[in-house]
Amino acid sequence: KNQVEQSPQSLIILEGKNCTLQCNYTVSPFSNLRWYKQDTGRGPVSLTIMTFSENTKSNGRYTATLDADTKQSSLHITASQLSDSASYICVVTVGITGTASKLTFGTGTRLQVTL
Amino acid sequence: DAGVIQSPRHEVTEMGQEVTLRCKPISGHNSLFWYRQTMMRGLELLIYFNNNVPIDDSGMPEDRFSAKMPNASFSTLKIQPSEPRDSAVYFCASSSGDRVSGELFFGEGSRLTVL
Fold it and tell me: Distance between CA atoms of A67 and A70, rounded to whole angstroms?
């Protein structure tokens, strides 16, 4: 069964600190992995999309890593800000052909950045 | 670009009533998705259209749910009759590619409460 598991479920950190969110997946065949940020009451917004051959991808203070061998990904947030408080959702695309592929969603990590 | 536009943003209705949610995708995008998000289950795909044609409706819960895309700029999701367990946030998303390569752009969601 295709699954995407995220940890931790929730996290509280102080402003300015770094943090790392984890995503483990068991899908086949793997196509790509995406991280989304969802602010409370808003729709998810794409942070990164990584294919099989990419190990690291950055978007400002967000850095995603992908280890296709261990089927793990992480999202590292540097120098956190209050505006980083949100849910972060890991999404894996299963399948290699267009319309037949599927997106498998994790349930997200809820991050709260405090003063 | 205005992004994906959904209406209404909030809907409160009584059990048994018909609910219609609307979505205007980003101009030029040829893929449209309807998702449902709950605390327990996260984001779940309901239906996926490509070039206005339903490709994958395996996530539609039952016959009470129906979706249409009469043209490239408009889609509806209808629930008739509605039940309390349908209470959730419904998201519409669009992309310019297929499910493998296209980046998803989400609307702000329609929060449905069925009493």
Answer: 6
